[in-house]
Amino acid sequence: MRWIDVDSRSIARIGYASKRRELGIEFRDSGKIYLYFDVPPEEHTGGLGVYTARLRQSLQSEMARNRTAQTDFRAQLDQKNSQVDKLERQVQDLQDENTTLQASAESPPIVLNLQPLEREGDSVPIVKRSSKAKVLEFHVSTMDFPSPSYAVSLKDNNGKELRSWANLKAGHNLLTFRVPLRLLRAGEYSVVITGDQKSQPYPFRAE
Fold first, then answer.
1. Are 206 and 129 in contact (CB under 8 A)?
2. 153 in Cβ contact with 195 (< 8 Å)
3. Mind listing the pLDDT tens digit for each residue in 114-146?
């Protein structure tokens, strides 16, 4: 193949093999060479713009495929990171549950009865953190909130979820669950309980 240098910002040279009717285009930046086959002699120069346009379109398609692949990879990576975060939270929950059981054996928990605020001005339950107690036990009546099971979420004043429970069962119309007191600092909190019909928030304050 006979090559000829080209005065172009993107193309370094072009080549043509008349016997094989092959057209070659070498790019300046990447050094890649693209070959086109069965190119008539009269088109290898006059029709160069057609082939470069085809090549440009091919490169753009390849770049688009690469961007799609990168997007898919980032989505898969985000999904994996989300799964890792979920597993880390589950491990932390198990560790806290073990700590709660050990602490309950050492000292009795503080019991906090939660009630929904039915009207503005109702007092918010307050839990006073004791230096001896290490566990806070929530009691919630489900008499007016029946459900086969409940999902519970403990959130701080900014809406950040501190702990969650799933598939909790109420015994004798009473739902109970525990958290280590070390999770709570002085401030406003909310327990959100979700049954099969509705969700109900139960605010409280820690002092």
1. yes
2. no
3. 988 877 777 899 998 876 788 899 999 999 889
Q: Which of 114, 109, 106 is nearest to 129 (CA)?
A: 109
In this prediction, residue 55 has a pLDDT band, given cuts at 50, 70 and 90, of low
pLDDT for res 46: 54
Above 90 in pLDDT, residue 58?
no
127 in the Ramachandran plot: left (φ > 0), alpha (ψ -120 to 50) or beta?
beta
Domain boundaries, the chain: 2-69, 110-206
Domain 110-206 has CATH 3.40.5.10: no
- What's phi and psi for 198, nearest 5 deg? -160, 175
Contact 179, 96 (CB under 8 A): yes
Phi, psi of 97, rounded to the nearest 5 degrees: -65, -40
